[in-house]
């Protein structure tokens, strides 16, 4: 329950702050071999850093296009090493915007590998 509440708070903050998100143009899966598909979701990405695990955890929330937190399809997590995130050059003003953008790029690349026929766009 605590995990769901934290994810909801992150999503609400992302939506209210007009945060960057990833848009799509087709049916998206989140795991190899999954039968669960989500039609053209907006993808919001929050993240945490675990010093203990030396890893970034992307907290992904898929919503109905344009609906934000009002219509959540699914929530998912992907773990990335520091090296994986360092492979991306984040853009934006300030360190926080740059790391957020690098995380969005990492999630986009992961989802594109799983869904090669879909266009993912960071907006």
Word description of this protein:
The protein is α+β, with helices and mostly antiparallel strands and 123 residues long. The chain has one domain. It is 33% helix and 31% strand. The chain contains 3 helices and 7 strands; from the N terminus they run αββββββααβ. The protein has helices at residues 2-16, 82-86, 95-114; strands at residues 22-24, 27-28, 38-39, 42-50, 55-63, 72-81, 120-122. It has a 3-stranded antiparallel β-sheet with strand order 4-5-6, sandwiched between helices. A hairpin with a 4-residue loop joins strand 4 and strand 5. The longest helix has 20 residues, at 95-114. It is globular, with a radius of gyration of 14 Å. It starts with a helix and ends with a strand. Mean pLDDT is 86; it is low at 4-18.
Strand and helix layout:
Layout: H1 2-16, E1 22-24, E2 27-28, E3 38-39, E4 42-50, E5 55-63, E6 72-81, H2 82-86, H3 95-114, E7 120-122
Major beta-sheet overview: 3 strands, antiparallel
Relative strand content: 25-35%
Total count of domains: 1
Helix-strand makeup class: alpha+beta
Distance between the termini: 30 Å
Give me the number of helical elements.
Answer: 3
How many beta-strand runs?
7
Order of neighbouring strands in the sheet with most strands: 4-5-6
Shape: globular
Helix content: 25-40%
Summed over residues and divided by their number, the pLDDT gives a mean of: 86
* Radius of gyration of CA atoms, rounded to a whole number: 14 Å
Order of helices and strands: HEEEEEEHHE
Name the poorly predicted regions.
4-18
């Amino acid at each position: 329950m605590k995990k769901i509440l934290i994810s909801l708070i992150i999503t609400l903050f992302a939506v209210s702050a007009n945060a960057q998100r990833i848009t799509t143009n087709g049916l998206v899966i989140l795991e190899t071999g999954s039968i669960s598909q989500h039609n053209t979701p907006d993808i919001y990405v929050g993240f945490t850093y675990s010093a203990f695990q030396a890893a970034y955890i992307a907290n992904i929330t898929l919503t109905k296009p344009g609906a934000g937190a009002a219509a959540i399809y699914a929530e998912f997590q992907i773990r990335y090493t520091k090296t994986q995130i360092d492979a991306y050059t984040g853009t934006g003003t300030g360190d926080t915007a740059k790391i957020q953008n690098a995380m969005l790029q990492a999630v986009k690349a992961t989802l594109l590998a799983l869904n090669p026929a879909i266009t993912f766009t960071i907006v």
